[in-house]
Amino acid sequence: MQIDDLPPLRDVIANHQLDAKKSLGQNFLLDLNLTTKIARLAGVLHGHDILEVGPGPGGLTRGLLAEGARKVVVLEKDSRCLPALNEIAEAYRERLEIFNADALNFNVSMHLKTPIRIVCNLPYNIGTELLIRWLTPTEWPPFWNTMTLMFQKEVAERITALPGTKAYGRLAILSQWKTDAKIVMSLSPEAFSPPPKVNSAVVHFQALEVPRFPAPAKLLSSTVAMAFNQRRKMLRSSLKAAAPNIEQVLQNSGLNPTARAEEISLEQFCALTRQLAAQ
Questions:
Q1: In order of start, what are the domains of the chain with their CATH numbers?
Q2: 66 backbone φψ class: left, alpha, beta (φ>0; ψ -120 to 50)
Q3: What is the pLDDT of residues 14-57, one digit of tens each?
Q4: In this structure, are residues 73 and 51 in contact, taking their beta carbons and an 8 Å threshold?
């Protein structure tokens, strides 16, 4: 698929000797049909600034720009990728801003203007940590309106999991408390270079104006973490450090003290957190 006048991604990688580094969690997506489809899944890009982390040789970057993003800001830790990204910047004048930076240690919000979408094929080694940071800012709503993020499929299933399933846990609670999250695309290993050992999936997050149910954020996060760290135990055991009268707190929340974390819905965890906060 020809979306611009730049060379095919395989040629870009060969010209700049961009062998993917496992240490950086790199798996390059080479098919511009797919990168453009992901860009479209993010929604209307016209009039939006886009944040992309880990662009590599820039396949998704090109898709975002070709689909009309007002500006794309990319954070790329691997300096080897900068010459390839600079070629894209020259082709899409003044619409691509490149930072050779670690996304875990860089405040990018000052370089973006609202409305903002985050669209990334996230490096596997930092994907979950970045997601949690974007879901747990000090203030809500966050600086972004939507996120369209690629993860290992197992992580995507944990994000969208429902109570009573093995995948259900802290990541599902944090994601579904403040966003509408759904899997919008699946990709096989053969779509990447080098092919990873697992399937991948794209998750689209729409930020809610307010959390789905009231609860103090930090206490909810710590309570959920405590419950799922010992998910095979009954709540009265896994949460005994949360309150000296935990059985009474659970009962006041409408919960059976012998229930386990994976049986408890988001709404019930929020009710439990409110009870704990009142202690």
A1: 9-207 (3.40.50.150), 217-277 (1.10.8.100)
A2: alpha
A3: 999 998 888 877 889 989 999 999 999 999 999 999 999 999 99
A4: yes
